[in-house]
Specification:
The complex is a heterodimer. Chain A is about 30% helix and about 30% strand. Chain A is of the alpha+beta class. In chain A, strand 1, helix 1 and strand 2 form a beta-alpha-beta unit. In chain A, helix 3 crosses helix 4, helix 7 crosses helix 8 and helix 8 crosses helix 9. The two termini of chain A are about 45 Å apart. Chain B is of the alpha+beta class. In chain B, strands 2-3-5-4 form a 4-stranded antiparallel beta sheet, covered by helices on one side. In chain B, strands 1-6 form a two-stranded antiparallel ribbon. The radius of gyration of chain B is 14 Å and the shape is elongated. The N and C termini of chain B lie close together (about 10 Å). Classes of the chains: A alpha+beta, B alpha+beta.
């Protein structure tokens, strides 16, 4: 078998990237394998920091789901290595959502870190991805359809009005522009995960099909290795003919099964990966075990799009939210739990009417997680935990809606119940404020003339 | 005689995860070609079976593929509501695979 790519660069024209984290800030980088990666001659250090998996609240409320200190720690780990090795560092979809405020947050953290460590002067490149609602509003009557994805109808004005914030998914283009401008550190707004890694590779002349695949396989770091263990670094190498990926934690390996298994991770279909400008067809990918811990892949095909369409993500606020928690142990009550929740709903309706607020009962022990799709919903457990969510325009009303529903479950009137001193058990005799409720209002695409038109780029400096 | 085993005993990985905000995708990955072929041919993970297991209509399945390089059967379904909407109790879609674990697969 050939020597591991970890210790020896392929003789051909190559570009080597270490990826230390699949969602920077969400859980901390494991630094042991990252240190090994830094000793493996990387040409860049790249990580994605965003995900729509965190739900619509962070985008809607313009916050991060990751704690600031974890974001600082991960950025510090990457920045110090990048400056010491003299290789660029790229972070995409800053701060979970890639909104403008999250890009500014990360740029600010990089500046603070440069100051803290007295780093020599370097260039920060960054770009924004937010799309103004006014721009979208203008394009709808203009006849440019903002098409729905995944079965959604085209965007209408009512849905747009209900939307708080929209980000567009950048491709490789702003990253290439910033690398051309000499950026040492790039903080990206919302972008396709694979573009963060594909951009430097395409800029250096590697074939698009391989370059996008390179990004696809690297973006979740050690999720493409086995045994399972997140937040460990992996090393990728692209040549004109292939992509190789190797695990850096000594206990992990990349295998054909782990890399191919990852190619289909969190995608509806394992054969296609879409991004601004086209997609890759992975149906003819060939996977081979290159060395004990490295997999070599050939055959991904780049298919340019006939029309440039950018993906849009948008979140809109539904209302303020309070949460209550109760338990049920009486088998009779469990068997009639729908009457209990109906009673609670009715009490809320008597106070506030039938609309203008939302009540949700999530019934753990019966079908909380799958809802109607739960095959065992007719045979609930011996005790239930019920989470009540009250959502309303104001905090005061949300609190009262939630309190009525939670407390009235205690007073539910079931005809044959033996226990007459309280129908449910309280964990807390209170309801708790939660994040406001949001929903994904946009999962759409929009036509662009220029792949850079929504993504303004900027260059600034940090260090001394 | 034909013994039956649970899917959880013969699959290497059984998982579910969001595929965007409106879909959940399921990956069932097998340790070897023989097991992969066995389950594939058994039909326990066919489109019709998936509909029956989750009580959904076939139009709710957006993708259903056999992915040879990973020895995997993969299918994707629409979510009941977009991820993280109030009332959604699985924001990442990561616990939807539960009903698959106990599926019985007839052995050779």
């Amino acid at each position: 078998m050939p020597a591991s790519i970890q210790h020896r660069r392929s003789v051909n024209h190559t570009l080597r990237i270490v990826c230390p984290n699949g969602h920077l800030g969400f859980a901390p980088i494991k630094t042991g394998s990252f240190r090994i990666g830094c000793q493996s001659e990387p040409d860049l250090i790249c990580a994605d920091s965003g995900s729509c998996d965190v739900g619509p609240v962070p985008l809607g409320s313009d916050t991060s789901s990751s704690p600031r200190q974890w974001q600082v720690d991960d950025l510090e780990t990457m920045l110090l290595a990048s400056r010491r090795l003299g290789v660029p560092m790229i972070v995409g979809s800053a701060g979970d959502t890639g909104s403008n405020s999250r890009v500014d947050l990360f740029v600010g953290i990089i500046r603070e870190l440069a100051k803290k460590h007295g780093l020599a002067r370097f260039r920060i490149g960054y770009f924004y991805s937010e799309v103004s609602k006014d721009a979208l509003r203008r394009s709808i009557p203009g006849g440019d359809t903002i098409a729905g994805l995944d079965g959604r109808p085209p965007l209408d004005l009512a849905t747009l009005d209900a939307t708080e914030r929209v980000v567009a998914m950048a491709g490789i283009h702003p990253y290439i522009k910033l690398l051309d401008a000499g950026a040492d550190v790039i903080i990206g707004g919302r972008s396709s995960d694979c573009a963060i890694f594909a951009a430097p590779a395409i800029r250096r002349g590697f074939p698009e099909g391989l370059a996008y695949f390179y990004g696809k396989v690297l973006e979740c770091a050690s999720f493409c290795a086995e045994p399972y263990g997140g937040k460990e670094s992996v090393l990728g190498e692209i040549t004109m003919d292939d992509v190789k990926i190797t695990a850096l934690l000594p206990e992990q390996r990349c295998t054909i099964a782990s890399v191919a298994g990852h190619a289909m991770y969190e995608r509806a279909n394992p054969f296609f990966e879409h991004f601004l400008g086209g997609h890759i067809d992975m149906s003819r990918c060939h996977y081979e075990q290159y060395d004990e811990r490295t997999v070599r892949v050939t055959g991904p095909k780049y298919v340019p799009a006939a029309e440039l369409r950018v993906k849009l993500e948008g979140a809109g606020k539904i209302g303020e939210r309070y949460v209550g928690i109760v338990g049920v142990r009486d088998p009779y009550t469990i068997a009639h739990i729908n009457l209990v929740t109906a009673w609670a709903r009715q009490q809320a309706a008597e106070r506030f009417g039938d609309s203008g607020y939302e009540l949700h009962f999530t019934i753990y022990g019966r079908n909380a997680i799958l809802g109607d799709r739960e095959p065992l919903k007719a045979t609930p457990a011996h005790e239930l935990g019920i989470v009540v969510q009250g959502v309303a325009p104001t905090k005061a009303m949300a609190e009262e809606v939630c309190m009525i529903a939670t407390r009235q479950m205690f007073y539910a009137r079931l005809p044959q119940v033996k226990g007459t001193a309280g129908g449910v058990a309280f964990l807390l005799d209170e309801v708790m404020p939660a994040s406001p409720a949001y929903r994904w209002t946009l999962n759409h695409t929009m036509r662009l003339d220029d792949p850079l038109e929504l993504f303004p780029t900027f260059i600034t400096e940090a260090g001394i | 005689m034909t013994a039956s085993r649970k899917l959880s005993e013969i699959a290497k990985t059984i998982r579910s995860k969001n595929a965007g905000v409106d879909k959940i995708t399921f990956d069932i990955i097998f340790p070897d070609r023989a097991t992969y072929d066995l389950v594939r041919d058994s039909g326990v993970l066919s489109r019709a079976s998936v509909c029956w297991i989750f009580g959904i209509d076939t139009a709710q399945i957006t993708d259903h593929v056999e992915f040879d390089p990973a020895l995997a059967i993969k299918f994707t379904i629409y979510r009941r509501m977009p991820s993280g909407s109030p009332g959604d109790a699985d924001i990442f879609g990561s616990q939807q695979y539960g009903p698959l674990l106990d599926l019985e697969v007839l052995g050779d």
